Structure formats: structure tokens, C-alpha cells
From TrEMBL:
Protein name: High-affinity iron transporter
GO CC terms, sorted: high-affinity iron permease complex
Coiled coil stretches, renumbered: none
Family: Belongs to the oxidase-dependent Fe transporter (OFeT) (TC 9.A.10.1) family.
Claim: Membrane is one of the keywords in the record: yes
MF (Gene Ontology): ferrous iron transmembrane transporter activity
Keywords attached to this entry: Membrane, Transmembrane, Transmembrane helix
Xref: PANTHER family: IRON TRANSPORTER FTH1, PLASMA MEMBRANE IRON PERMEASE
InterPro entries on file: FTR1/Fip1/EfeU
Transmembrane segments: 6-26, 38-59, 71-90, 110-127, 147-167, 174-196, 244-262
Length: 282
């Protein structure tokens, strides 16, 4: 449940901020009627993301217990690791220009004078975040209870909407830079866990016959199938019997990831982030 909360909060917050930026800018320039097009695009994107998620989940579950499921799991884990890593670093480095970029896209959409311009803008913006969420969630869905995933999604989205309302509805300044830095760090931990899971699957298939010997066995103390073991496995990648390749890749990923993500930047760069810009009144 915890990974679902963090992922849906992170993606939901970004999507809701994008929508709020669009709507606030339309109000600012006197195009309030066009907000209906924005909500239409949001609704279409949400419907498509939900349909794609349910379809993929249903298709993958058809291979439950088979070799194909292991192949799909391992592939999904590794792709999700790449996407989680790239998304975190992209948002940190490019996020400060997002607000200005969105406003330029709105002006271009309004200049086209067609119904589908703003619908398409909001559809693509929200749809992209939704599809990322679907893919990340699938990576955890293989070994998670669907009810737990659903509850985690509701909690995460609820928190995201609450923060968004605090900023745009109440005009409060919220330190979203801190939020996104913390969430980015958590996503890197999830990425390391998914990387280790992917390696485990591919080693079980015989595709990575390197360092396959288990370094230790803590199953007698904390079984992965227990409640706590399952939580720690999904959250930080706990494994009772990690192989040398799993452990090495996990540690190396975190060392490089944390160093690159949290290394000091100039004060000017910090103060010009997009999250701070989105936090201000529009």
C-alpha cells in the first residue's frame, strides 16, 4: 500500500498542479469559458488511463504462475526502474520551466481557436502522468493485494488534491520543493527495489548467471511472505536471500542515485524551481 500511496501522491500532485496552472492562467487572461475544454480533456485522460491499467492488469494476470509471467514481471520491473529514475531527475532539473512552458502552450492552443486544442493539451498533460502511474503500479501489482493498491491510490490522490487545493484554492505557499525532493528520494528507493526484483526474475530464468549465490538468509527472522516482510520488500526491496548481483546492483544504484539527486546546487537554482513558481499565487 505504501508504494501506491507515494506513487499516486507524486503523480497526482504533478497532474493536479498542471491542471491548476492551466485553469488559473485561463482565468487570469479572461478565458474562463475555455475551462470546460480543460476538464473534458482531464476526464478523457483519466478514463483512458483507467481502461489501459485494468486491461494490462487483466492480461498479465492471465499468465499467473507461468514462465511468461516471470518474463513480464522482470521486464516491467526494469522498465519501471528506468522510468522512475528518469522522471525524478527530469522533474528536478527541468521542472522550474514547466509553468512558463505550460502558459506558452495555452497561448498556442487558444491561438488555434479550435475546441480540440485545449482538450488535447490537458488530455496529453494528464494522460502522460496517468500512464506513468499505471506502469509504476503494475510493477508493484504482481505481489500486492488489489484492495491494498486501491486504498493506497485513493489515499495518495486524496493527499495530492489536498495539497493542490491548499496552494490554488486557499492561496497558501507550500514548500513543494521539499515535498518533491523527499518523494524523489523515495522513488529512487523504489527504483532500487524494482531493479533488484528484476534481477531476481532474470536470474531465476537463467538469463543472468552471475553472482547467483545467496549472500545470507534472514528468512528465519523475517520472512518475505509475512506482513512486515511484504511491506519492507515493496517499500525498500527487502530480500531474505539476496544474491550477490541483486545486492550489488541495489547498493550501487542507491549510492549513485542519491549522490546525483541530492548533490548541492546553487542557491539561485534552488529558488527558481518550477515547484516554487507553482506555489505562488497566480
Amino acid at each position: 500500500m505504501l508504494p501506491a500511496i507515494v506513487i499516486f501522491f507524486r503523480e497526482g500532485l504533478e497532474a493536479s498542479l498542471i491542471v491548476s496552472i492551466i485553469i488559473a492562467y485561463l482565468h487570469k487572461i479572461g478565458h474562463t469559458r475555455e475551462t470546460r475544454q480543460v476538464w473534458l480533456g482531464v476526464g478523457l485522460a483519466a478514463g483512458l488511463d483507467l481502461a489501459v491499467g485494468l486491461l494490462l492488469y487483466h492480461v498479465i494476470r492471465q499468465y499467473d504462475g507461468s514462465r511468461m509471467q516471470t518474463i513480464l514481471e522482470g521486464t516491467t520491473y526494469l522498465i519501471a526502474t528506468i522510468m522512475l529514475t528518469g522522471m525524478s531527475f527530469w522533474m528536478k532539473s527541468q521542472g522550474r520551466t514547466m509553468k512558463a512552458s505550460m502558459e506558452r502552450q495555452i497561448q498556442l492552443a487558444l491561438g488555434k481557436g479550435t475546441l480540440f486544442a485545449l482538450v488535447g493539451l490537458s488530455f496529453l498533460s494528464v494522460g502522460r502522468e496517468g500512464l506513468e502511474t499505471v506502469f509504476f503500479t503494475l510493477a508493484f501489482a504482481f505481489h500486492s493485494n488489489p484492495l491494498d493498491l486501491g486504498i493506497g491510490a485513493v489515499i495518495g490522490l486524496g493527499l495530492a488534491l489536498a495539497v493542490d487545493w491548499t496552494i490554488f484554492g486557499m492561496g497558501r505557499r507550500v514548500p513543494l520543493t521539499v515535498f518533491f525532493n523527499v518523494l524523489g528520494g523515495l522513488l529512487l528507493v523504489f527504483g532500487a527495489a524494482l531493479l533488484a526484483d528484476g534481477i531476481e526474475d532474470f536470474q531465476s530464468l537463467g538469463w543472468l548467471p552471475l553472482l547467483t549465490h545467496a549472500l545470507w538468509n534472514t528468512g528465519g527472522v523475517l520472512n518475505e511472505n509475512s506482513l512486515l516482510g511484504d511491506i519492507l520488500h515493496n517499500f525498500i526491496g527487502y530480500a531474505a536471500k539476496p544474491t550477490g548481483l541483486q545486492f550489488g546492483a541495489y547498493v550501487l544504484y542507491l549510492i549513485i542515485g542519491f549522490w546525483r539527486y541530492f548533490r548541492p546546487t546553487s542557491l539561485r537554482s534552488k529558488n527558481r524551481t518550477q515547484i516554487d513558481a507553482a506555489s505562488s499565487k497566480i
